[in-house]
Design a protein that fits this description.
Layout lengths: L27 H26 L1 H8 L5 H22 L10 H22 L5 H22 L6 H21 L8 H21 L5 H26 L6 H29 L1 H6 L4 H13 L6 H18 L3
Length: about 325
């Protein structure tokens, strides 16, 4: 199935069902919805990127009050409670068995793997250096998409994507002094598992609402995250302070749930490869937040890299896939 072939509107498709047809199906409105869907999908995917750009600074704040294992487990539990409450309140049925494998990949990649590995990395890595993984994520997601859902982006798409990734890598490595740290193992591992989770989540979001994809993935992790949070809190000291609590709150609500909701909706509307390229702007946004929230320095290279990245994003959005 091609990622860009037929993004399905949530209002006309239920889990396990096909599109509405027959006399009662909308006609003129469907065409207008299809025309507006790409722009709306870009806006939603961009909103997800904005939410994700705060993840690393929020993690640094969260580590001021919690240990790394506690922070990851508790954020997952809180997000699962929020998602599970929404699923129960709206009486959403359990997804068909055929979707459980995909939800497990989403859970392992974006609920457990990426948060855990990046949190462990941020104990010793700066926010700027950790942004390297985000700079590589769009290209890796496009590669996973080509393997998993059969998308075949054009040559101009790949050239622009590689150029944008190269610009982001050069910028972030330059910000960290050009040296690689021991945290790189965690960061590259996070890159792989997150790309797999994004790709599978984007695929599932074409047959079920995006918020249900991440909602069920979070609920699926509860048998692991709940005892994990209990054990981690018993072993790791907790320090009171508003930085730690604010970081935990954003990670649970913004990064782990709401951000993924709009992100998966955006990927379902515009296709996984195109949506993934919007993340090229995420490292630069993260660096802005790092200056404002963490007091990290920013060099003159930021606006130059930002301009190059925006050009690459524009090319990928226009390239035929």
């Amino acid at each position: 199935m091609r990622a860009e072939s037929s993004a399905i509107d949530e209002s006309t498709v239920a889990v396990g069902q096909g599109p509405r047809s027959g006399p009662g199906a909308p006609e003129g409105g469907a065409g207008r919805s299809a025309r507006h869907r790409p722009l709306g999908g870009v806006v939603q995917a961009a909103s997800g990127v904005l939410a994700f750009s705060l993840t690393f600074p929020a993690t640094v704040w969260g580590l001021e009050g919690f240990g790394p294992w506690s922070l990851v487990a508790v954020r997952s539990v809180l997000a699962a409670v929020l998602a599970g409450g929404c699923l129960l309140a709206l009486r959403i049925p359990v997804p068909p068995r055929r979707h459980w494998g995909g939800l497990a990949v989403v859970a392992g990649g974006v609920v457990v793997g990426f948060p855990l590995l990046t949190t462990l990395a941020l104990r010793t890595s700066t926010t700027a250096h950790a942004a390297v993984v985000v700079g590589l994520l769009p290209l890796t997601t496009a590669l996973f998409s080509a393997l998993r859902v059969g998308s075949r982006p054009s040559r101009s798409f790949w050239l622009a994507a590689c150029a944008g990734a190269a610009a982001v890598i050069a910028f972030t490595v330059g910000q960290s002094g050009g040296a690689l740290s021991g945290a790189d193992v965690y960061l590259f591992g996070a890159l792989v598992v997150c790309a797999a989770g994004y790709t599978e989540g984007g695929r599932l979001a074409r047959v079920m609402p995006g918020w249900q994809v991440i909602g069920w993935a979070l609920v699926l992790c509860l048998p692991v995250s709940l005892p994990g949070a209990w054990g981690a809190l018993a072993q790791e000291p907790v320090t009171s302070g508003w930085h730690g609590l604010a970081g935990l709150a954003w990670l649970a609500v913004g990064s782990q749930f709401l951000g993924l909701v709009v992100w998966y909706r955006g990927m379902a509307a515009v296709g996984i490869p195109r949506a993934s390229q919007l993340q090229l702007a995420q490292p630069l946004l993260t660096l802005v937040w790092a200056v404002l929230l963490l007091g990290e320095g920013l060099t003159w290279a930021a606006p130059v890299t930002a301009a190059a990245v925006l050009v690459c994003i524009a090319v990928t959005q226009r390239a035929r896939t």
